[in-house]
DNA sequence: GTGAGTGTTTGATTTGAGTCAACACGTGCC
DNA sequence: GGCACGTGTTGACTCAAATCAAACACTCAC
């Protein structure tokens, strides 16, 4: 029915990531804020290894055993789900510093598929080893709850987008979200390369690729962005921001 | 900006739920499967109290401190979120046995609003007391992870619905989901009363109330259901089920 | 280079759901 | 009872995005 997960990748079992968490530029996003040097080394000790993924390679698929948490070190990945009726949907894009793999914790089997959009590198932490954490590192466990809550918050924002926004607003929100995320990683917020195809964008935004393409062209026409293939320049983030919320009825918002 | 959470309800601080978990019909849904009698009583000891909610009353609102987990004992509630642009969306309906309140765990503040759709009763478990759990009741903590994963799975299904299905499919999926959930609670799967308004249904399904109404009428016309106000009879669940997936292109489904 | 193949853009047309508007029904209040 | 108000239904019309179709552009293999 579905292709098996590919395991034909470099897998340095037991190897310690060279450099370690302390020197990794992403540790401020993978690890809880304010974790001291001694504890960081202890967490690092739990890490199984790094794992290299080629573009198009799956890290895991829905139904696979959920026994490892991953942190993206470099590259970009997408998550996608398939429901019982055969509908498929991209649910998100993950980049450096994002934590992955907690979708099936407790259930012991992953809910979604995770595939690399470009050559990527992830750090792996076996969930079983989390139980080895001493009580004073409860911070870590609490941090993972925080990350899971973050998944829920992000999904809710996606639901609102899919339910309430027009195509124009969806693309504007998408571009601004990417921009913000690149900025958080220290990259330019106004110029970046899309790692995903128009098809992925369309699936994520709940619109057809023709519409994605038309909206890109329209934004370019309106001098909001400059787009050439997968290279995007944000020319006017203020006006882009103003597009979002435009389809709201003027009558004030209920809260009850 | 937003109405304050109403606390004008019966709050029997410290009171032990009369009857307790062992006699509660819902314990097989609130508590992990296979929990023995002795441990059930121990968990029950952590419960703060029951709480009564009048129809329309909020259990909590987005931004409120997240320090308690709730289990619905009787009644029906809805969760809804509001994003920074003012878009509002119903994200789900909760009934007896459903666990609530873990949306903000770790974040320490709730992400969404939770309001009673009819007079309801919930059991409250302060999260702080979870730390009192002895190591051998790790089952409980693991169970909560499972419930959080369940949130994620449910939200993903909602995202697919909002992104890919036509109005007809959305309502069919909604009715069948309700039917299945009533059956799981021991009620009739073919005849039930909707607890939510057409407006709530529309917001949840991402369609306008006029469309909800039209679809109800159309289903009735087609002898799939019988609907009078909020009373629904499922007449042909097989054909209802067949509606879902109809808008899929016939070309076979990608998995990669 | 040529050609196959995939991914992207653009145009013409269709259509499903939104919008606007009127009306019907149910419930509670006086 | 009659009235008002909130909620739900139905119809006529509009419009945003889907669909269908064709052309274009980039990549990779040979």
Explain what you see.
- The structure is a homodimer of 256-residue chains.
- The first copy, chain A, has 256 residues and is α+β, with helices and mostly antiparallel strands.
- The first copy, chain A, has 2 domains: 20-162, Jelly Rolls (Sandwich), CATH 2.60.120; 166-243, Arc Repressor Mutant, subunit A, CATH 1.10.10.
- Chain A has helices at 20-23, 27-30, 37-46, 138-164, 167-184, 198-205, 209-221, 237-243; strands spanning 49-53, 58-60, 68-74, 76-82, 88-95, 99-100, 113-116, 120-126, 191-193, 225-228, 231-234.
- In chain A, the strands form 3 sheets. The first copy, chain A, has a 4-stranded antiparallel sheet with strand order 1-8-3-6, with no helix packed on it. A 4-stranded antiparallel sheet of chain A has the order 2-7-4-5.
- In chain A, β10 and β11 (231-234) form a beta hairpin.
- The longest helix of chain A is centred in the middle third of the chain and has 27 residues, at 138-164.
- The N and C termini of chain A lie far apart (45 Å).
- Residues 1-17 and 250-256 of chain A have low confidence and may be disordered.
- The structure holds a DNA duplex (30 and 30 nucleotides).
